[in-house]
Specification:
Four copies of one chain form a homotetramer. Chain A has 318 residues and is an alpha+beta fold. Chain A has a single domain (9-129, 149-309), classed as Roll (2,3-Dihydroxybiphenyl 1,2-Dioxygenase, domain 1). Chain A is 17% helix and 33% strand. Chain A has five helices and 18 strands. Chain A has helices at 22-32, 78-90, 164-175, 228-240, 291-296, and strands at 9-12, 15-19, 36-41, 44-48, 58-62, 67-75, 96-98, 107-111, 117-121, 153-161, 178-184, 191-197, 205-209, 218-224, 245-251, 257-263, 269-275, 287-289. In chain A, strands 1, 2, 3, 4, 5, 6, 7, 8 and 9 form a nine-stranded mixed beta sheet that branches. The first copy, chain A, starts with 8 loop residues before the first strand and ends in a 22-residue tail after the last helix. Chains A and B meet through helix 2 of A and helix 2 of B. Chains A, B, C, D: It comes from Kutzneria albida DSM 43870. Chains A, B, C, D: It holds the Pfam family Glyoxalase. Chains A, B, C, D: Residues 11-123, 153-275 form the VOC domain. Chains A, B, C, D: InterPro entries: Glyas_Bleomycin-R_OHBP_Dase (IPR029068), Glyas_Fos-R_dOase_dom (IPR004360), GlyoxalaseI/FosfomycinResist (IPR050383), VOC_core (IPR037523).
């Protein structure tokens, strides 16, 4: 008999981002990506995208260096939240509770095997747009302003890890994430990337190989727009704002999403993304790429520059 | 404590369609929508879209009149399949098994409260494209040929029902479908439409009010394309093929999808669709439209012609 | 022997627009359409779109009622300018010179047979973007900011006229405009619309039938965006900004352009447009629609509301 | 006083293409690009795109090697045709008449300074689609079938030349083509590319530096689709048809068009293109890139592979 999947994680939630250049970072997220500031609190600024149902989804935090502060998941129910905490505590990954933060949480904070900080929560606050900011159709959350790249919401996060399979198994076994693609050698000894999701979307959490001795680093956060055409528009916006484009617009082989990579002025890599397949089969097995087939780069799409595979934040290897 | 959702249905599966004009219907699905014939068997033809992971997804069946032969769901596991059958049999909806059909099934056949035929199955056959039809990227299922409207897969089905809330509750209670939008009067006595889904997609199964005394009728099947631009292209293709366009291209208020409605030569209404929101919140409540707000048609989008609300197949009211 | 066309008009130039609500009108053009203010002078504001090579292209003028102040054409050379003025003066259409206005002109002002004010000029000033507003690629004119509907430039103007053929012939005979489509009855006695251009673009100047006793009225100005997808985005922006959408997004039969009509808060109708065919054949004859074929509305596209055919500015018939 | 431009060339017309693999070449143009065969005559096949107003626009000719047979221009009038022939004969470029070919011509054949064969004609035959192939809107030429990349028409041609400025001046002085961009060193001694047009479109005829001792070679023919989204679709189609993609989809710096390059099975390079700016100013000067600025590649867009700059047909340097 098939083992049945668990459904305890609903979606990626709020995340925190460190930046040594808060002003530049906010200019990038607000004026170029099109997100809105919902609150400010000392060194921290709370932002939301127009498609977020929760009050906020990104906390930009002034710091001495760039990097991820945390990534979070919303659990599907209070019971699901507690089941996952029980699993963490039973498997040597006990964390601690962090208090409610501007309507969201409390959150249970812990680390993945590479040391990235994660938070798990259920309680949240739905966004209620102020008068003048409500959308015409009430099933939306906020007026569509069409500013800059106009990202709709966070799509996925890519983390660097020295031991990709250890991280992958942590989420598969502990949280029921499904893995849709893996790059690894025939003997399984060399696994360099894995694409995972809590839903039918092809990727929410990606691990790719950390090539340095650092740990807990961010490869990129990806925000989604509604069409490939909007990814192309974003390239125009970034180019004219003199934000260097690291890669794209082009198409990834894995998950087949359309991408554009820049770095926000604080140094963190950010993707503007559209597409990627949906996985409807409840019993699909991950597609295993062997390194040779992977490097053959079937299909279409521009080559990625070498720095794409090594740069992360904190940029510890400069 | 919150009741936790069940996840026993994975997605809409194969469906059957009756047509009094098999030749015209096949021309429509193959040459205009861009689907492929995978097998023929007397009066029945098996078709697939290029994004289907299963071998086939549509069985066109010659008959004396148009209409839906069946709609199906694939269960998430063998256990899930049996849990749902147990529920059906325990609640007075017992059906019967139908045999395996060209690699898919056996399926358990039953009816919803309005008399529409449904099938439930788990066993299936993944499509293996013949040499020359394989996509360059092996996570795809079939070469992208770009013929006609080039639909990727079935998106949702809309069924007419005399008692919309009865049908809605049948799926909510028996199968754990989530309802994302409802149109009904303040006193709840007049519910005219409901949009339901087994996943984060805004709609898979829709019920709208049957205005005649008929039962078990189809409003439309919707096939999805990759962009709104492709819906516009489809309009060009249909117009020049002299297929009358009933409505669109435009945008629906409910679920916010972009639509185009035609009728295949057999008479069944078919939508070419793109978009519609995704529902990430695991605890979102359905949005309840009152009829006045609904008729106010907030947002943008062309008005639907009167026939849109009354025509269905079989076209029993001519 | 074929008569050879003249090429004395290069393109539609700057235009002036009266508004009883300058603040509302500027909000519309700047925040929603995405144009920029380049100068202010009492009741007049000078605007440009990011694709304009000239310094400004629209002068919004506070007034007691909405309506067109003038439409202009840039001549292809000083000689061409004088040839056209000679023609005007020789044919009883003498006008007068208006002085240089913020870098553009002097312009020769005259009226078409319906009394619309036109200006003809050659001298102009190329836009030089200030530091920080320059595009990355120097063949552009201005940074691509992607604000709101983000219109690129004026595309065409539609004027109401009591005698459409008289206006059409005025431009054909006096200026060498080419007419690409005409709607008229078989006996030629009833001509209700004509689409004209100085270039390969399907329409720059349109005349449609004035149904009132007024003269010199505006039907609409149309601004162009880069894709149909951007017309759809504009609909979202207008709807959420609570600007009523009069028609579209949909596709016109004439010239086959994709359209969206709203009225700026001052009352003037404005189109956000994309597409329309190009006419390469130097010897193409206008396509003559008879009224019956025209009303049959071949192809696809939503019906236009009745007000579309009667409303104009000044709104003299209220 | 400004010199006034001539307008004797209307647009690029029919062209001939040599191929050593007629079957493969026809598969490419018909099944992948979506063009139609209108006639066959021994080793020659006549093709048209759905947006061509003339009967045919491409003659594929079996030969021992790939390469351009000829490029043509349609003159704006019979007088214009004879004026240009007079110029050719007066300036030492006399050619000869070639007979009418399936409704088009006679054509006057001559060579540019690099030895590329050109034809000039006025007489032509408008396409009359057979019953069942007529578009719904009668201003179109042919039913929109949406097959494969579905190119609308020829957009531009790029020819390799050992002496780019000589070729550029030939067209400027002899035919009134306008040059919109040039790449050349500060001292003018090194001119490596020029983009020219007979209309407001940014490019119809391009010359780029020939790096071998060959002459008369083709860099590429470009066919246009209606949106950047369709260029991306074309990449999918080519990739899955196992046609190698040489470059793109991405965006060019010059003229700013969106591109995708493949080679048809006979070896000729073909672009699927969309966009590129329009030049409205009648007095715009060419933008002169110095090689350093040019290599700095401002804006966005993938780098071109080295072979892009050297490969041409005939492929004499293998």
């Amino acid at each position: 008999m098939t083992t049945e999947p668990t459904h305890d994680l609903a979606h990626l939630g709020h995340h925190g981002l460190f930046t040594p250049d808060p002003e530049g970072t906010l200019h990038y997220f607000v004026d170029l990506l099109g997100m809105d500031v919902v609150a400010q609190d000392g060194e921290a600024t709370y932002l939301r995208a127009y498609g977020d149902y929760e009050t906020w989804s990104l906390k930009v935090i002034g710091s001495d260096q760039a990097g991820p502060a945390w990534v979070s998941w919303r659990a599907t129910s209070p019971q699901a939240l507690h089941r996952r905490i029980d699993w963490l505590e039973a498997h040597g990954h006990a964390g601690r509770w962090t208090p409610r933060d501007r309507g969201i949480g409390p959150s249970y904070q812990f680390t993945d095997p590479d040391g990235h900080v994660f938070r798990l929560y259920y309680d949240t606050q739905r966004y209620s747009a102020p008068e003048g900011q409500r959308p015409a159709i009430p099933t939306g959350f906020q007026r569509y302003a069409g500013r800059g790249a106009n990202v709709r919401r966070l799509d996925h996060v890519n983390l660097l890890a020295r031991d990709v399979p250890a991280c992958r198994k942590f989420w598969e076994e502990g949280f029921g994430l499904r893995t849709y693609e893996i790059v690894r050698s025939a003997d399984g000894g060399d696994e360099s990337a894995a694409w995972m999701s809590s839903s039918i979307q092809g990727h929410e959490l990606i691990y790719t190989r950390e090539h340095t001795s650092a740990n807990g680093r961010l490869h990129h956060f990806a925000y989604v727009v509604d069409s490939r055409e909007e990814v192309l528009r974003a390239a125009e916006i970034f180019a004219d704002a003199r934000i260097r484009i690291e890669a794209g617009p082009s198409r990834h082989t894995a998950i087949q999403g359309f991408y554009l990579y820049t770095r926000e002025p604080g140094g963190n890599r950010v993707e503007v993304a559209h597409g990627g397949y949906l996985v409807f089969a409840p019993d699909s097995e991950p597609y295993i790429w062997n390194p040779k087939e992977w490097k053959g780069k079937p299909g279409w799409g521009a080559p990625l520059p070498p720095e794409f595979h090594v740069y992360g934040t904190p940029d510890t290897v400069r």
